[in-house]
Amino acid sequence: MNHVPDAERADYISRCLELAVLFEVSGYPKPGNVHRTADFAETRYEHFLASAVSVAPSFKRAAEQGINVSEKTIVPSEVGVGNIIRGAVDRMLGSQGGGNTLLGAIILLVPIAAAAGMTGNSFSLSRLRENIGVVVESTTPEDAVAVYDAIARVGPGGLNQSSELDVTDPASKRRILDEGVTLLDTFKIASSYDSVASEWTNNYPITFNLGYPYLVKQLEETGDINTATVHTYLKILAEVPDTFISRKAGQAKAESISAKAERVLKEGGLATPLGRSLLQKLDSKLRDPENKLSPGTTADITEAVLAINNLNGYKP
Description:
The chain is mainly alpha-helical. It contains 15 helices and no strands. Helix content is 68%, strand content 0%. It is globular and about 55 Å long.
């Protein structure tokens, strides 16, 4: 990003994040999720493509707000992360008929876009991560209410599990405003059972400490973005049981799937016949009719990993 003209920076950031979403959903054969050769009954590959394109303006808006912070025309609490997330969800839902395709990814990527805008032309991953921390720590109660609205629009899948500030209860939004509960505070409540929320509250450790170094290594070893994407997805799944699965099917099932993902990688993944065979078997096992075993949270975090890789200068 060091040589991007100032006038083009927000657009460049948006394109990096849009491409990350496209890379992730295209990665195949990504076990248990939609990809370019596999659909769900109600949600197909083209629904994700349409969603990725539709949310790009929201990423651009977040980047523009980050640039405004760097130019000191606004302070970080005025970025409006919540409204940007809600707007992106509306764009996603309005762009296709497959329902919720990108909620978790949007929640992870909007702070990344704003933080990238804040870094200016002295971009580095350490500065990006520092600025992500500033963005999420500066969120407001209004941001929290906006994100509650966004989650409710797609069908709650995380924060609603808490008896405290239940996302399905209108009284929760009144409490948020009355008691000054920030968006970061609400994600702290959910962080024990939702990895997207945990990334927010802990400054994206899976993204930066686990996923990104592994992706870079895979790109160096294979020279292939598809293989690197699938292997990174498997690595995250192997190390971090998917919280979407644990909420739907229980922690034991999530841990069992992680163990299978670890074995696929141990046997070579896409690089060996045995690895490919095990990967296909895992994919078949995860494709239940109700998609309870779909590692959706792993996909969200993989998109964040791909985003920071693109922002750091990767070109396919």
